[in-house]
Amino acid sequence: MLIAAVCTGNTCRSPMLERLLHRALNERGLVDFSVVSAGVAASDGDPASAHAITCMSDYGIDLSDHRSRHISHLDLPRVQLFITMSDRHAALLRSLGVDAERIVVAGEEEGIPDPFGGAIDDYKGAAQSLAQVAEDFAAAAEARKHSH
């Protein structure tokens, strides 16, 4: 199953979720998942933000090799699930022809606030929320696997 984490610039939230989700799935032995990330307004080739790299190192994840990618580089029909950071990202995907059933907004109704340009604590808050999203998704995937 191919999962795409989607945010605006692909330098903070979606790369953090990509790596957190990858780890959470692997820790449960769920190897039939692939996770990628992209941004709806991303430039290509930008590194992850310094605060995002710092926050992920707190989780034992190295984000220094991440390079941003625009959503247009994804083969949208191949992606089985999009996890977006806001309703705005979800609406944009729907406007590109992605079925609403294949889109989930991360976190609660308000999504995950964009920490870009904010203080390290803004990033830490986003990272905590994204780590919870990753754990919840992986636990649900594991439960589905065992119920079949």
Structure description:
By secondary structure, this protein is of the alpha/beta class. It has one domain: 3-Layer(aba) Sandwich (Rossmann fold). Helices cover 41% and strands 13% of the residues. The chain contains four helices and four strands. The protein has helices at residues 13-27, 50-58, 87-95, 120-147; strands at residues 2-7, 34-39, 81-84, 103-105. The protein has a four-stranded parallel β-sheet, sandwiched between helices. Helix 2 crosses helix 4 (120-147). The longest helix has 28 residues, at 120-147. The two termini are 16 Å apart. The model has no long low-confidence stretch (mean pLDDT 96).
DSSP strand tally: 4
The rounded distance between the terminal residues' Cα atoms is: 16 Å
Q: What would the CATH topology be? A: Rossmann fold
Tell me which CATH architecture applies here: 3-Layer(aba) Sandwich
Kindly state the percentage of residues in helix: 40-55%
The secondary structure category is alpha/beta
Shape verdict: globular
Instruction: Note the main sheet.
Output: 4 strands, parallel
Task: Kindly estimate the percentage of residues that lie in beta strands according to DSSP.
Answer: 5-15%
Mean pLDDT comes to 96
The CATH superfamily is: Response regulator
The tally of helices reads 4
Which value, in Å, is the CA radius of gyration?
14 Å
Low-confidence stretches: none
Q: Could you give the order of the helices and strands?
A: EHEHEHEH
Number of domains: 1
Question: What is the CATH C level class, in words?
Answer: Alpha Beta
Biggest β-sheet: strands ordered side by side in the sheet: 2-1-3-4
